[in-house]
Specification:
Elements lengths: L2 H16 L9 E3 L8 E5 L16 H11 L4 E15 L5 E14 H18 L7 E4 L4 H11 L5 E4 L5 H10 L4 E4 L1 H9 L9 E4 L8 H7 L3 E4 H10 L12 E6 L9 E5 H14 L8 E4 L6 H12 L3 E4 L19 H5 L3 E4 L1 H18 L1 H19 L4 H19 L8 E4 L6 H11 L3 E5 L9 E2 L12 E2 L4 E5 L15 E7 L6 E2 L3 H7 E3 L5 E11 L5 E6 L3 E3 L5 E3 H8 L5 E8 L6 E7 L1 H11 L6 H6 L1 H17 L10 E5 L18 H7 L1 H9 L1
Parallel strand pairs: 3-13, 5-6, 5-7, 6-10, 7-8, 8-9, 12-13, 12-14, 14-15, 15-16, 28-29
Antiparallel strand pairs: 1-2, 2-19, 3-4, 10-11, 11-21, 16-17, 17-18, 19-20, 20-23, 22-23, 23-24, 25-26, 27-28
Helix pairs in contact: 2-3, 3-4, 3-8, 9-10, 12-15, 13-14
Length: 697
């Protein structure tokens, strides 16, 4: 039997075995810990915190070398070839780049290891010393991963920077860490040239692309930088090999600059041991995660979620195919009509995703179903309702067979959107709505492991187990973490609360990072070491423990605003409830202590709103004009009220007035982070006039 067929059957078999006990199984159990008094839980299967799942392996460099030797002839890194690039102009005059991409071309583990070793030697030959830092400033691609591993083989700390980071934050990150070598792509090299006069320590720039932009030659002529291609660095290393200088577990692997929702970014210092603990933990959670899986990589590698995922996939001998959010599916913005998106070409078995991506997949499916209407829509809705009933009851017997029937007749076409072979999805970076989690789970026929963690804990915190079919929770502690709740009396959250303990979430264990680079004051504020030597990170998030030891995020300290008459509003909670409206692409709730009601900025979902306008016979010259119409605002407002009632929000939590916006919020606009989280201060500043008018009207 094909290993892929076996892999596809595993989720069903595990779900069937555990379905009846899902509500009684203890996933997390109380544990005695030191530090500030609270209520602490550990993973029920691991009485001792896990540091590594590979015998004798204590660093990411060791893990990668071991995998390359064990799987030398297997595929590791795949990249699609560019066949053609076209520019299309829309009716309103905007131009869009469309790509025709070919099939994946692969490098084996052995070939990648050779390139990595050559790159490491080339770095040394260029004069980069182990005590100096490298920065990787590029979109996710195979060269990014190889540059990371090459740096590790020289025990070089890697500074990770989002490709979408603005000029001020870019200069700040490079200067604060005194980076001497920057590794980037063509696009990012152009950005570097523009700020070259503001960079104090950069000596070398390594371009991942062979064609170096002409603008960079000026920097070479001035003697400020040495610009060289990655291929040339590998050639230098091949001709001048040097021995590896491998790191220890306590050495800093990565200084990760978060894109930050407020102010300048902070550099989080992660050791090899920190990241390995999380990688090891996830390996124990996902059944059958071994050398037969294919992973689609498209999230930013400058984010810990993606770094951990790719190191795990490489560590178990599986394949990584690279894509991008704009080329992910056959209907993605940058894919030429009639050609394959990344998922169709790769047909992955496992993926990581952020809620914003999954929300879009859900909206896209619902839109297609609604467009077809008739018997297609009725059949889809009936099948979906039956699957909900089955999940709430039992998957045994007839219902188990019925699930297979609906998967074949109805949901098979939905699965095809992501290649048709997905057996597990990992969601992280932000809360995933219960509606989206259930929808994706049913339509793809695969579990979604919703995780909770932070950059400061290397994404280690909690993770939904494979057989946990509940929604709205973030799972039980991963094997490398203790989760503790402590009282927050000011917000009214106490561990003595009934029926569930509630409080601020504090995470302890080997995944808790060293602290913030050159920011001891901030580090002391949120990192604590207890009398037993355990390191804890104070998250600022508010959670509650369910009876089975699983965590639910219910609030965040910074997101709570007290209205004029004393009511508390949790901005994030309300936004998560309202964003399920089909008319909403994104939104930010705003609450002012001097008013008794909330308002909201709503980025409108263009396809859904234009379809509504067309059915109503509403004429408009542009989408921006449609968003200004009073009847449009009333329609969107009504949909928000409907979503609010479904989520049982209080009246004061529902925005009394809204402003519809036609332009999307992207990392490039500076209004959301690379992980698509809201940058509240930036949004408030950009739309201060609109917010004032909402309160004045």
């Amino acid at each position: 039997m094909s290993p892929y067929i076996v892999g596809a059957l595993v989720p069903l078999l595990v779900a069937l075995l555990y379905q009846n006990s899902k509500n009684t199984k203890k996933r997390g159990v109380p544990v005695d810990v030191g530090g500030e008094p609270g209520y602490a839980i550990r993973n029920s299967r691991f009485p001792i915190l896990l540091e590594t799942a590979w015998e004798g392996v204590s660093t990411l460099a060791q893990l990668f070398e071991l995998a390359c030797k064990e799987h030398a002839d297997k595929y590791l890194l795949g990249t699609r070839t560019l066949i053609s690039k076209d520019t299309q102009v829309s009716a309103d005059g905007r131009s869009f780049e469309k790509l025709h991409l070919g099939e994946y071309e692969w490098l084996t583990y052995g070939e990648v290891f050779e390139k990595v070793c050559n790159f490491a030697s080339g770095l040394a030959h260029l004069g980069h010393r182990s005590e100096e830092r490298v920065a990787i400033f590029a979109d996710t691609r195979a060269e990014w991963f190889m540059a990371l591993q090459g740096s590790f083989r020289r025990n070089i700390s890697v500074v990770t920077i989002y490709a979408s980071l603005g000029e001020e934050a870019l200069c700040y990150s490079l200067n604060e860490t005194e980076v001497t070598t920057v590794i980037c792509g063509n696009k990012e090299l152009k950005k570097l040239v523009e700020v070259s006069g503001q960079l104090d320590t950069v000596k070398r720039v390594i371009c991942m692309d062979d064609e170096i932009p002409s603008s960079a030659s000026l920097e070479v002529q001035s003697g400020r930088w040495r610009v060289v291609s990655m291929a040339d660095v590998e050639k230098l290393g091949r001709e001048n090999p040097v021995d590896a200088v491998l790191p220890l577990a306590a050495d800093i692997a990565v200084i990760m600059y978060t894109s930050g929702s407020t102010g300048l970014p902070k550099g989080v210092m992660m050791t090899h041991g920190n990241v390995l603990a999380v990688v090891s933990s996830v390996r124990t959670i996902v059944p059958g995660l071994e050398s037969n899986d294919v992973y689609l990589a498209y999230l930013p590698l400058a984010h810990i979620l993606e770094i951990a995922a790719e190191n795990l996939v490489a560590g178990v001998g599986s394949a990584i195919g690279y894509g991008s959010p704009l080329t992910l599916t056959d209907t993605s913005n940058k894919i030429k009509r009639g050609t394959k998106g990344d998922a169709t070409a790769l047909r992955p078995t496992v993926m990581a995703a952020v809620p914003a991506i999954l929300d879009r997949v859900r909206e896209g499916v619902r839109k297609k179903v609604d467009e077809k209407g008739g018997i297609t829509k009725k059949l889809f809705d009936f099948a979906y309702a039956r699957r909900i009933s089955a999940i709430n009851g039992s998957w045994f017997g007839a219902r188990g067979l019925e699930m297979l029937l609906w998967n074949f007749l109805v949901f098979r076409k939905v699965r095809a959107i992501l290649g048709g072979r997905i057996r597990f999805l990992l969601s992280g970076g932000a809360p995933l709505s219960g509606d989206t989690q259930r929808f994706i789970n049913i339509c793809l026929g695969a579990p979604i492991g919703q995780g909770y963690g932070l950059t400061e804990t290397c994404a280690g915190g909690t993770f939904s187990e494979f057989d946990d079919t509940s929604v709205g929770r973030v799972g039980n502690p991963v094997p490398c973490s203790y989760i503790k709740l402590i009282d927050w009396p000011e917000g009214g959250y106490l561990i003595s609360d009934s029926p569930m303990p509630r409080g601020e979430i504090v995470i302890g264990g080997p995944s808790v990072t060293v602290g913030y680079f050159k920011n001891e004051a901030k580090s002391k504020e949120v990192y604590k070491v207890d009398e037993r030597g355990m390191r804890w990170f104070y998250t600022g998030d508010i959670g509650q423990f369910h009876a089975d030891g699983c965590l639910e995020i219910i609030d965040r300290k910074k997101d709570i605003v007290k209205l004029q008459h004393g009511e508390y509003v949790s901005l994030g909670k309300v936004e998560a409830a309202l964003i399920v409206s089909p008319y909403v692409d994104n939104m930010m709730l705003h609450a002012d202590p001097f008013h008794s009601y909330c308002v909201a900025l709503v980025v409108a979902a263009q396809p859904a709103l234009e379809e509504w306008a067309s059915k109503r016979g509403i004429a408009f010259a542009s989408f921006a004009e449609l968003c200004e119409k009073e009847e449009t605002i009333k329609e969107v407002q009504a949909s928000l009220v409907k979503a609010a009632k479904a989520a049982r929000l209080e009246k004061f939590e529902i925005p009394a007035k809204i402003k519809l916006l036609s332009d999307p919020w992207t990392p490039e606009t500076g209004l959301v982070t690379a992980a698509l989280k809201l940058k509240r201060e930036a949004i408030r500043k950009a739309f201060s006039e609109e917010l004032s008018k909402l309160y004045e009207s």
